[in-house]
Design brief:
The complex is a heterodimer. Chain A is mainly alpha-helical. Chain A has helices spanning 3-8, 10-22, 28-45, 54-64, 67-77, 81-87, 99-114, 118-129, 135-143, 150-157, 181-206, and strands at residues 162-165, 172-175. A two-stranded antiparallel sheet of chain A has the order 1-2. In chain B, a hairpin with a 7-residue loop joins strand 2 (63-68) and strand 3. Classes of the chains: A mainly alpha, B alpha+beta.
Chain lengths: 208, 113
């Protein structure tokens, strides 16, 4: 990948650290958004530029303007950090995890149980209609596991194998088939943990 | 007032509508927007200041963003005009036409035709 090389270029690294330092006055999500935006800009602007060519790199950075100037523009357009949370809750919408994203993750997990099958599909629609996730995130969210917890829960509650022991002879007879415990237990654990891990992953991705 | 200050005054409050106009027909990513704006002389002095502007437009829900994989490197944030953004752009376009005509009217007074 070319990206980390770009950001390791001394002038670029210095610029980005100055920007990040200056941006401390911004709310955390705006600070991250700003630094990410400038990083992305530099990736594009420095494509085809020789990292050793300080003159060209400096020209790209000069066109961006001083980090302090960019942060000043951000402060000008927004109320100060300490007042955003209390006085302008509306300003928070659209960034990070919104109601849609939270409902999507919850419904993908247990929607299929609350409202059999349909609940999960509603979660799926919310997942795919959100702009907070890339297609890759959405595919992961869709396939681990289709139906969410509906499948592992029904497997856990209704084992395919039913065993009864005879009270007189003590002999145990089983109907149906079952996985041996050494395989079945880990499989069930994976079935239960994977959706949780994916839920955590989706929330993290949405918060960027 | 010095000319540079004047240009800054004029840009303030209008650049954001130029951004919205660039998004009228298509989604674009940050660098693309900056590139288009800088291509016209006098619209942007420091390219980096466009990013806080984009952030504000997103928070005001005039644009929405989505992450899309790029051919080279990490995903990019794409900007798209929302319904609110479309409305704001339409309102500005009307207002701007009236304002421009009004200013032109006064500037032309007393000038030889």
């Amino acid at each position: 990948m070319t990206m980390p090389d770009t950001h390791r270029q001394p002038l670029v690294a210095d610029y980005l650290s100055r920007l990040d330092a200056a941006a401390y006055q911004l709310p955390a999500d705006q600070r991250a958004e700003l630094v990410d935006g400038i990083r992305e800009h530099l990736d594009s602007a420095l494509t085809g530029v020789d990292p050793a060519d300080d003159v060209q790199v400096r020209a790209v950075l000069d066109r961006l303007g001083a980090p302090e100037e960019i942060v000043a523009a951000a402060l000008e357009g927004a109320p100060p950090a300490w007042s955003t949370a209390s006085s302008a809750p509306a300003a928070q919408t659209g960034s990070g995890v919104g109601v849609r994203e939270i409902f999507a993750v919850i419904l993908l997990l247990i929607g299929g149980i609350i409202l059999p099958v349909i609940g999960w599909f509603i979660g799926l629609v919310l997942l795919w209609s959100s702009d907070r996730w890339t297609n890759r995130d959405k595919i992961i969210g869709t396939f681990v596991w289709p139906g969410g917890y509906l499948l592992p829960v029904s497997l856990g509650l209704f084992p395919a194998q039913v065993c009864t022991s005879d009270s007189v002879t003590g002999a145990e007879s089983c109907s149906g088939w079952g996985m041996p415990a050494w395989l079945g237990v880990p499989a069930l654990v994976v079935l239960f943990l994977a959706p949780l891990a994916v839920a955590g992953y989706l929330i993290t991705r949405a918060r960027r | 007032m010095e000319p540079r200050g004047l240009a800054t005054q004029l840009r303030r409050g209008t650049v954001e509508y130029c951004v919205l106009a660039l998004l009228r027909d298509q989604e674009r990513y940050g660098f693309e927007l900056v590139h288009e704006l800088s291509a016209i002389d006098g619209m942007v002095t420091s390219e980096g200041t466009i990013y806080p502007l984009l952030s504000r437009l997103r928070r005001e829900e005039l644009v929405s963003t989505s992450w899309r994989e790029s051919d080279s490197g990490p995903p990019r944030r794409y900007y798209r005009l929302t319904r609110n953004g479309q409305r704001a752009l339409d309102e500005f376009s009307d207002e701007w036409a009236r304002f421009r005509d009004a200013v032109d009217h006064f500037l032309s007074i007393g000038r030889p035709r």
